[in-house]
Write a structure and sequence with these properties.
Rossmann fold, binds adenosine-5'-diphosphate, alpha/beta, about 25% helix, about 140 residues, binds magnesium ion, seven-stranded mixed beta sheet
Length: about 140
């Protein structure tokens, strides 16, 4: 799968549906893009569309947020503040991504070498106040 679009907020729901279709087989979703590009916005939209009722906030300070979904837990990471890979061992990061749980990961750069299964790579580029380029690739 390879998908590329230039869009504003009003297209996010459509893109979220595409991601939801993929999540059936790909459980790790990484979101790359500068601060304010729209990573958390996509996670919020996907979870809302999946029917998660919890309010979704950025895990910038908590590192991990958990959401209930149909008796399972969905994990949402923001690794912006993680400086050393050892800090991830402390939270048991690998256990999360090797579980069959859905994991959304913002600022994934530090863990890319640890993911050795299929994942969805979402890249967002800020083009203007209401304009983003979103590129989605399935990586095997
Ligand atoms: N596709 C988009 N088009 C226009 N604005 C967007 C889009 N995605 C997000 N935004 C806006 O950008 C701002 C930052 O989004 P956020 O998801 O918090 O970014 P990040 O998590 O990458 O730091 C929010 O005000 C949001 O409404
Ligand atoms: Mg964010």
């Amino acid at each position: 799968m390879s998908y590329k679009v230039i869009c504003s907020l009003n297209k996010i729901d459509e893109i979220s549906q595409l991601i939801i279709d993929k999540i059936k087989t790909v459980k790790t979703i990484i979101l790359r893009g500068e601060l304010g590009s729209g990573k958390t916005t996509i996670v919020k939209s996907v979870l809302k569309r999946m029917g998660v009722n919890d309010s979704v906030t950025s895990p910038t300070f908590s590192i991990i947020n958990e959401y209930d979904f149909a008796g399972n837990i969905i994990y949402h990471f923001d690794l912006y503040r993680i400086e050393n890979i050892e800090d991830l061992d402390v939270i048991g990061f690998e256990d999360y991504i090797y579980s069959q749980s859905i994991c959304f990961i913002e600022w994934p750069e530090i863990v890319l070498s640890k993911i050795n299964h299929k994942y969805l790579d979402i890249q967002i580029r800020y083009l203007g106040e209401d304009k983003r380029e979103i590129i989605i690739n399935e990586i095997d």
